[in-house]
Amino acid sequence: MAPFMALVVIAAFAEPTVGMALFFAIAFFVIAGIKDLWFINRAAAYKVLIFLLFFLSSLLFFRAHREWHGLQVFASALSLGVLFFVLVKSFLSYGGGDGGRRRVVLTLGVMSLMLWQLVIVLLFLPLSFLSQTALLFLTSAVFVEYAEAYFGDRLSREKILSQTVIFAILALLIFLTGEWRL
Fold first, then answer.
1. What is the Cα–Cα distance from 157 to 89, expressed in whole angstroms?
2. Which DSSP state fits 17?
3. How far is C-alpha 95 from the geometric centre of its chain's CA atoms?
4. Where residue 92 falls among pLDDT bands split at 50, 70, 90?
5. pLDDT digit string (tens) for 147-158?
6. Deepest of 24, 67, 111, 171, by most Cβ within 10 A of its Cβ?
7. Distance CA 99, CA 127 (A)
8. Distances in Å between the alpha carbon of 24 and those of 7, 16, 89?
9. Rounded to 5 degrees, what are φ and ψ at 127?
10. Rounded to the nearest 5 degrees, what angle is found at the Cα of 81, between the Cα atoms of 79 and 82?
11. Mind giving me the DSSP string for 128-142?
């Protein structure tokens, strides 16, 4: 239910283009496939759906807000954090591994707060909106992987180290290849 509502809200703010229509068709197909059991590995499809929705919402946010403009941008950035919280919480509850309600809410709340702060920091960096979107999406993907492993009791030092190194390399690549607006 949460991904469908997120899709409806994102569609309300998106421009009516062919690319957006194609994206919404793919996202709706994945939602229908999860609900109607078309996919064998529904948890992986659910994760792909979360990634698609968060990437699109990040792209729309950074395309609309190229720099800091006050309270409106502050509230929009907060909505990205709330969207991350709701989507990942629904993903974790879909898999059946809540891992203690308070622990889930606290952990996802801290991750959402960190993403919200990252959105605000990215607005002050002189990067293009595509680079900003890529950095936020990369961070959110790492957070989803950490949350899934943590609540599935599969989080190890090796996983943290390997994902942190991959994150650092990809973030450095984004910073080096990104278009800087000075």
1. 24
2. -
3. 18
4. confident
5. 888 888 888 999
6. 111
7. 38
8. 8, 11, 22
9. -100, 160
10. 65
11. -HHHHHHHHHHHHHH
Question: Which amino acid, 31?
Answer: I
CB 85, CB 112: distance < 8 Å: yes
* 8 A C-beta contact, residue 99 and residue 92: yes
Q: At a CB cut-off of 8 Å and minimum separation 6, what does 80 contact? A: 54, 57, 58, 61, 115, 116, 119, 136
Q: What global pTM score does this model have? A: 0.85
Per the listing, tokens 């999406």 go with: 137
pLDDT for res 99: 53
User: From residue 8, how far is each of 70, 105, 140 by CA, in Å?
Assistant: 26, 24, 21
Give the tokens for residue 39.
């996919």
CB 30 within 8 A of CB 49: yes
- Cβ-Cβ contacts under 8 Å for 65 (sequence gap 6 or more): 73, 76, 123
Helices 129-151 and 42-64 pack at an angle, to 10 degrees, of 150
- Give the chain's end-to-end CA distance (angstroms, integer): 42
Q: What local confidence, expressed as pLDDT, does residue 143 receive? A: 94
Residue with tokens 């990104």: 178
Supply φ then ψ for residue 38, to 5 degrees. Answer: -75, -25
